[in-house]
UniProtKB/TrEMBL annotation:
Family stated for the protein in its record: Belongs to the SEC23/SEC24 family. SEC24 subfamily.
Ranges of residues in domain Zinc finger Sec23/Sec24-type: 333-371
Bias (Gly residues) ranges: 184-196
Native source species: Oncorhynchus kisutch (Coho salmon)
InterPro entries referenced in this protein's UniProt entry, alphabetically: ADF-H/Gelsolin-like_dom_sf (IPR029006), Beta-sandwich_Sec23_24 (IPR012990), Gelsolin-like_dom (IPR007123), Gelsolin-like_dom_sf (IPR036180), Sec23/24_helical_dom (IPR006900), Sec23/24_helical_dom_sf (IPR036175), Sec23/24_trunk_dom (IPR006896), SEC23_SEC24_subfamily (IPR050550)
Residues in Sec23/Sec24 beta-sandwich domain copies: 659-743
Localization per Swiss-Prot or TrEMBL: Cytoplasm, Cytosol; Cytoplasmic vesicle, COPII-coated vesicle membrane; Endoplasmic reticulum membrane
Name of protein: SEC24 homolog D, COPII coat complex component
Residue ranges, annotated region (Disordered): 80-208
Record key words, sorted: Cytoplasmic vesicle, Protein transport, Transport
GO molecular function, one term: zinc ion binding
Length: 1005
């Protein structure tokens, strides 16, 4: 960071006392959480600035918490007096213009005073005064943990002798004592009280530096520049590139040891190794802040959301230890009698080891006789390091019959492949492609580590207006088809032979897969059903008494007469009106009931869509997004151009690590509680998160609220317990524990923020809110909350400075980039040029994304390739996502986890074009190029290897789009240059930063 002139506190300069006596390895920075709430008094905001802005930086001397200081210099607007960024062309004439950010009204004229903030500070300080020292780190040691020698491997745990303690009563479902949950959080209407308070110290007014929102007037020459200055000429405004590179430089390649409470992990973009020493790896759990505010008032004041993003099945890299498995035999896991929390490092043993006090509810419990162990002179159990559940953040328990449905052992899950064989899919060759692929793919069904073959059963259905089930019992010479034409009352016509072991029935199944494309070769049926297909899958799993997953390959809107029939309701006229939200609301009724049926059976639905037109994805995607499923979409599918993309997705999807019939519960220590959940989940009550399946890429975002005061001494503890069925049919509990700091100082909270996690929370809450509120309101709330978070920091944590300076907490300095990008995403941008299904799709998939995925989605990687060192294995460093970084003679790769582009400048050197594409020059490149030729030269090899490694890292496959500068397809590419003005609406990063700055000043006045 330093080379950019940023001033940052060394994040680990203050070792945390942490959990009793650990060496200060990775000293945590004292956490400073933010709490943001979509609530708070609506502020009255002026119009966004439309003027071209320039920023000057000044730096403050290093202090404990680093702060950015920007001087904002607005030059007069250069746009025509048109609408501002993110305008809303159809804004209701009745809405009070002054309160709407992104409004359509032209910018206020110069010198307008009604909307502008008060006179601002002196223009003089090039250097801001030093910041007042922040309060010291929270000193809360953690009583329950003892010192920890550096842990080599962990001895695995055996079973357990005699003496059942008391077995758990029932499932995981005991409600935590405490007051009833508050109303759901998120985008709701604000109560009073969050408004910025008066009393922010006014700076002496300087004449030239008066910066008013929207239209202002500080000339650059004031700061020694002549005329308008572009920002690239000056010190850069906070950029994600620098932040990620700095973190990589500081923490990359290191071991991150989780022994300290409240320590902020490296960024998701940083390459690090995790060693579990009492807290869950950040791969499993990340928080928006690692220091919660002690009181609800503080939380409300700063409006930083308190959230955790939990990815319970996150992939653990090969060089990290997989989760240990604990088996307490018939007794089952040991749990607190009162709150039902599972045995973990936060339980404190007392009374010579005969009792333990629960770290979550403080209840004192008897230690079951079989579990008794003596304590050492430090009060720690002498077997501490032999028991994963006493010393690790994450581990698994064997679940007893009490944790199984109807007290019966679970069965291995089944995968049912359901292929739409209507005219379009036969004609396109898709059906044949799928059938061919399945013949080999089914050898790769998920299996337990070390198992020779998978126990997952498979079944096959084809359908158009009616359904065809297949008996593929191994004893048969030929598969048998059974037709169900009454789709209103779906049933499964065969019990035996529908779900089989692939290895045993391979011959019959291959025979079937050979026959299917021919059986329907002459079909002219173009109508399809959809809900009955899902119903059939659930019924089949019910009959087989197992959980599982449906893989549905479908092409068109289901218009055939049957339950769940849909019609085209894509009305572009609704865009930017109050009713736009209806485009994203699923048609309820049949689909809502289906989701419930699926979840109660542990039936996850993965939908592969191949539409050539609108399919009402908002509704068709409803069941997948409530059952832990995924939605893949291949518009205008052609075997020739799209096969690789689709088949890569299908392979990853079939093979990935997954758990079934899951129920998750997040327990917390006293004083706060999980109140709101986002993900591909279903909730029957306020606490139990049900997931028909959860795979290695799915995350659940949880919001926490206070219900009492938190203590700095004991911190904030959370335990996520996930009960699920393995691919082997075993019932298990996966436990993730995390301990955070608490502080009465807001500065602590801001210092421990994690911007990547924060934007994940904002994205999910905004995408949910858009189902109930106009997009304009959702965008306003986003900006409003951001302004509040930043204003609160400025007011309470930074030293007085000129109002013209934009001050950002170090840990949140790039938050505005992400937020601006979020507001320009398809779902939130409100443009008739975007397909409704695409917008709905993006909204739904983001709902289950983890922090890595939202980070990349909102800030794509733009990698320059024209100067790459072909001799090196290193991928060239990404550059800022802005058109300014493109050069006519350049070649760039851009990817965001969903899309992958190779952009070529018009003046791209012919030699490079020749080596990569095997054509003599840019002009010779065919327009519809969609893949790279395999050529035997270093440039071609290097480029293909970069692309392959990117594809390998991402949860879903991406189709490479080759874009020539100035071609029509460039628009698709440009919408990902998120620092620029959006082609479908939305401000540039610079303009947005100006806008946020004005909003902050509004809050402060
Ligand atoms: Zn308890």
């Amino acid at each position: 960071m330093s080379q950019q002139g940023y001033v940052a506190t060394p994040p680990y300069s203050q070792a945390q006392p942490g959990m009793g006596g650990y060496p200060a390895g990775f000293g945590s920075s004292p956490a400073q959480p933010l709490y943001g709430h979509y609530g708070g008094q609506p502020q009255s905001f002026p119009a966004p600035p439309t003027g071209k802005a320039t920023f000057l930086w000044s730096l403050i001397p290093p202090v404990k918490s680093s702060v950015y200081v920007l001087k904002v210099v607005h030059t007069p607007p250069t746009y025509p007096a048109g609408p501002g960024p993110m305008q809303n062309p159809q804004a209701s004439p009745t809405s009070p213009p002054a309160q709407q950010p992104f409004q359509t009204a032209p910018p206020p004229t110069m010198g307008q005073t009604t909307l502008g903030p008060p006179p601002t500070g002196p223009h003089s300080p090039q250097m801001a005064p030093p910041q007042s020292p922040l309060a010291g780190p929270s000193m809360g040691g953690h009583p329950s943990m003892g010192g920890h020698p550096s842990m080599g491997g962990h001895p695995s745990m055996g079973g357990h002798p005699s003496m059942g303690g008391h077995p758990p009563m029932g499932g995981m479902g005991r409600p935590v004592p405490g007051p009833p949950p508050p109303g759901s959080g998120g985008f709701q209407q604000p109560g009073p009280g969050a408004a910025g308070q008066p009393g922010y110290p006014q700076q002496p007014q300087g004449t030239e530096s008066a910066v008013t929102c929207g239209s202002v007037m500080i000339t650059a020459k004031l700061y020694g520049f002549i005329g308008p200055v572009s920002w690239s000429q000056m010190k850069p405004i906070p950029g994600i590139k620098h932040v990620t590179e700095d973190d990589q430089a500081k923490r990359g390649g290191q071991v991150y040891t989780t022994n300290l409470r409240g320590q902020v992990p490296p960024l998701v973009t940083t390459d690090f190794t995790v060693q579990d020493q009492g807290n869950a790896s950040p791969r499993f759990m990340r928080c928006t802040t690692y220091s919660f505010p002690c009181t609800a008032d503080l939380a409300k004041q700063c409006q930083v959301p308190l959230g955790a993003i939990i990815k319970p099945f996150a992939t653990v890299p090969k060089n990290e230890t997989p989760l240990y498995f604990v088996n307490h035999g018939e007794t089952g896991p040991i749990r607190c009698n009162r709150c039902k929390a599972y045995m973990c490092p936060y339980m404190q043993f007392i009374d010579g080891g005969r009792r333990y006090q629960c770290g979550f509810c403080n209840c004192v419990n008897e230690v079951p006789a079989f579990y008794f162990q003596h304590l050492d002179h430090m009060g720690r159990r002498v077997d501490l390091y032999e028991r994963p559940e006493l010393s690790l953040g994450s581990y698994e328990f064997e679940a007893t019959l009490d944790y199984c449905k109807n007290n019966k052992p679970a069965s291995p899950p089944a995968y049912i492949f359901m292929i739409d064989v209507s005219y379009a899919n036969i004609k396109s060759g898709l059906v044949r492609l799928i059938c061919e692929e399945l013949k080999t793919l089914l050898d790769n069904l998920p299996r337990e580590d070390g198992a020779e073959s998978s126990t997952v059963k498979v079944g096959f259905v084809t359908y158009n207006k009616i359904l065809h089930f297949y008996n593929v019992k191994s004893a048969l010479a030929q598969p048998q088809m059974m037709v169900v034409s009454d789709t209103a009352e779906m049933f499964v016509p065969l019990l035996d032979g529908f779900l089989v072991n692939f290895q045993e029935s391979r011959a019959v199944i291959n025979n079937l897969l050979d026959q299917i494309p021919d059986m329907f070769a002459d079909t002219n049926e173009s109508e399809t059903v959809f809900a009955p297909v899902i119903q059939a899958g659930v019924e089949a799993l019910k009959t087989a008494e197992c959980s599982g997953k449906l893989f549905i390959f479908h092409s068109s809107i289901p218009t055939a007469e049957a339950p769940g029939k849909l019609k085209n309701r894509d009305d572009k006229k609704l865009i930017n009106t109050e009713k736009e939200k209806t485009l994203f609301q699923p048609q309820k009724g049949v689909y809502e009931q289906l989701s419930k049926d699926c979840v109660s059976q542990g039936c996850s639905v993965d939908l592969f869509l191949f539409p050539s037109q609108y399919v009402d994805l908002a509704t068709m995607g409803d069941v997948p997004t409530h059952t832990g499923g995924s939605i893949f979409k291949y518009s205008n599918f052609q075997v020739y151009t799209n096969s690789n993309h689709f088949l890569s997705d299908l392979r990853k999807d079939v093979e990935k690590a997954i758990g079934f019939d899951a129920i998750m519960r997040v327990r917390t220590s006293t004083g706060f509680r999980a109140t709101n959940f986002f993900g591909a989940i279903h909730m029957n009550n306020t606490t139990d998160v049900e997931m028909a399946a959860v795979d290695c890429d799915k995350a659940v975002t949880v919001e926490f609220k206070h219900d009492d005061k938190l203590s700095e001494e004991t911190g904030a503890l959370m335990q996520c317990a996930l009960l699920y069925t393995t691919v082997n049919g075993q019932r298990r509990l996966r436990i993730h524990n995390l301990s955070l700091n608490c502080s009465a100082q807001l500065s602590e909270l801001y210092k421990s923020c994690e911007t990547d996690a924060l934007i994940n929370f904002f994205a999910k809450s905004a995408y949910r809110a858009m189902l109930n509120q106009p997009l304009k309101t959702v965008r306003e709330i986003l900006v409003n909350q951001t302004a509040h978070m930043l204003a609160c920091y400025r007011k309470n944590c930074s030293s007085p400075s000129a109002a013209s300076q934009l001050i950002l907490p170090d840990a949140m300095k790039v938050f505005p980039v992400y937020l601006n990008s979020l507001m320009k995403t398809g779902p939130l941008v409100g443009s008739a040029d975007l397909s409704t299904d695409d917008r709905a799709h993006q909204r739904l998939i983001a709902t289950a994304m983890g922090v890595e995925d939202t980070q990349l989605l909102l800030y794509p990687r733009l990698i320059p390739l024209h100067n790459m060192d072909v001799a090196s294995d290193v991928v060239p460093a990404p550059v800022r996502c802005s058109e300014e970084r493109l050069t006519d003679a350049g070649m760039f790769l851009l990817e965001n986890g969903r899309s992958l582009f190779l952009w070529l400048g018009q003046a791209c050197p012919p030699e490079l074009v020749q080596r990569v594409f095997n054509v003599p020059s840019f002009a010779h490149l065919p327009a519809d190029l969609s893949s790279l030729p395999v050529l035997d030269n270093p440039q071609s090899k290097k480029l293909r290897s970069i692309i392959d490694s990117l594809l390998d890292q991402r949860p879903s496959a991406m189709k490479l789009l080759i874009v020539k500068q100035k071609d029509r397809s460039e628009m698709l590419f440009r919408q990902h240059l998120v620092e620029d003005k959006g082609p479908y609406g939305g401000a540039s990063y610079m303009d947005f930063l100006c806008y946020v700055h004005c909003e902050i000043r509004q809050v402060l006045t």
